[in-house]
Amino acid sequence: MDGAPKRRRAADEEEFVYTYDDDTYQPYIPVKQRKQQTIERLGLRARAPRKGPDEAEGGPPPPVHTLLHEAQELREKQRAQGHEPTQAEREAEEERKILEAHKTYRKLASHAELAQGIQYTEPLRRSWTPPRFVRARPAEQHDGIRQQYHILAEGDRIPPPIAHFRDMKLPPCILAYLAKKNIHTPSPIQIQGLPTVLSGRDMIGIAFTGSGKTITFTLPLVLFAAEAEARLPFNASDGPLGLILCPSRELARQTYDNVLAMADALEQAGYARVKALLCIGGISMSEQTHILRTGFHIVVATPGRLQDLLEQGRFTLASCNYVCLDEADRMMEGSFEENVRNILDFLQRQRQTLLFSATMPKKILDFAEQSLVQPVVVNVGRAGAASLDVIQEVEWVAPENKMAELLEALQKTAPPVIIFSDNKNEVDDILEFLLRKGVDAVSIHGSKTQEEREYAINTFKRGKRDVMVASGVASKGLDFSQIQHVINYTMPKDIEDYVHQIGRTGRSGKTGIATTFVNKGVPDPTLLDLKYLLMEAKQRIPPFLLEIEDTRASLGTHTGCAYCGGLGHTIKHCPKLEETQRRTTSHIGRDSGDY
Asked: Is 90 helix (H, G, I), strand (E, B) or coil?
């Protein structure tokens, strides 16, 4: 190699010189130092989150950015801009978190539907359609009818309201039946509700007590059942076509009687016979063995007893395509909700679902709108509002004077009168006191046997007794005609129960009186609820209620409770939520006929 010619650089070739201003310059790093940097970089990369495909390779990984960091940055940014969250904003955020924690996320569907991801997107199709002249009316005319009757309707493709029974294409025998009951024109909930249900739409009905909700969901079901029986007679294995769930035995019995009366009217006019089954606790099912053996179209039930019969295999819900929850606010809370969900597991096909109540808290309303198929929400009064046909009188009465004041209150009107107390022992004490004073009275509460309860209801309905003393079991849904006066011997803790109780009077457009005793034992949030309820109904407010101040007024927040709908408190101080949590913890059921 020594003899090989050496390569010489051309004389005119420029010599390359390193300059520190050159962008491509990279200083020399010893091998040992480069290895150490590589090890450190690999260690950091192993601890850091895995990079996405769009992130550049090489260099140290970016710091982990958590939600906590974002919240801190947002607070620092707000401070830098001179913005601090107001007390109202902090209160609203706290209430939102509480409501979120108590939301019901699981839809009102069977386990099979949830597991298979079955989701119905279109409502059921029924054979009924509005008359042609009703369909031809412009939308502005429909809106005018709703406005005239103070009806709020929300949803997609809302069926038109119909202001006369004769225009609803009802059978003449049903029109005669309604006229016999002195029902000549539909109530607001019926004007919009009946066309909605007859069309096959899912519906959430909100209306004050005594507004005619029961006819809105029973009449269409009876007509659907008669139509189905005419097409193909039912047998024992077919199971019911429709299901109505009620929170108490008394309400279920009353609804069942209404169904039978309409079915009899149809049968006498030559229509197919519609059979119904009553499933409630306290009665022997052997009395209805014939109906179970020959088949039936409609079941009216309390959740506990119905679940028991379904689990025994006495009948199935394979053909059921109509489900109604009466007093839905109560049916979807506590132990009732578990029973209802267990019953829904027996359903095997799409159904039309209806929820009705005088009170519909936002928690349940939001959940229902997610569970139903394109629901139509029909509201003829704020959810939880009292009937404007009830004159509400609130009196401050010391506990030791309540019995004497009760006798005075009974003199305000002629009988019949209902007296409510939230304590079963107190119900018995009041009954004993009235009987000693010569007042013809009966009592009803959850510890009574079914025979005792039915005897009390029947004698009171027939006018053989002037006064009924009742616990909360009779406060929801029961329809006693001609009630002149309701006396709340004890102010309910839950303002919803108060609304239901005073709703036993002032029904079907008649005026009634409600007298309520309060004292220092009633908490301020409940009194504040009562104050706002009286203001909303344009009632006289006694001075002791006017003195109660609402601390939220200074904060500019007055939206009421998102859980129960009460206007005088927030969800942080909701007595209903506290009671629900207490009962959930102690597994105590309500005083009701849930079986």
From this structure: helix
Residues 288 and 334 in one domain: yes
Better-predicted residue by pLDDT, 295 or 46 = 295
Q: Do 460 and 359 sit in the same domain of this protein? A: no
Q: Give the span between the Cα atoms of 26 and 232, in whole angstroms.
A: 91
Q: Answer yes or no: are the C-beta atoms of 235 and 195 closer than 8 Å.
A: no
CA nearest neighbour of 217 among 330, 344, 355, 343: 355
- Report whether 384 contacts 574 (CB < 8 A): no
- We report the CATH number of the domain holding residue 365 as 3.40.50.300
List, edge to edge, every strand of the sheet that includes 276-279: 152-154, 376-379, 203-206, 352-357, 322-326, 242-245, 298-301, 276-279
Q: Give pTM, 2 decimals.
A: 0.70
145 SS3 class: helix
The residue among 360, 379, 398 that closes a domain is 379
Tell which residue, 432, 427, 461, has the closest CA to residue 447.
Answer: 427
Same domain, residue pair 185 and 312: yes
**Confidence category of residue 418, pLDDT binned at 50, 70, 90:** very high
96-120 tens-digit pLDDT? 665 555 555 466 777 777 777 788 8
Percent of the chain as helix, strand, coil, to the nearest 5:
45, 10, 45
Residue finishing a domain among 320, 349, 379: 379
Same domain, 402 and 328: no
Owning domain of residue 491: 390-548
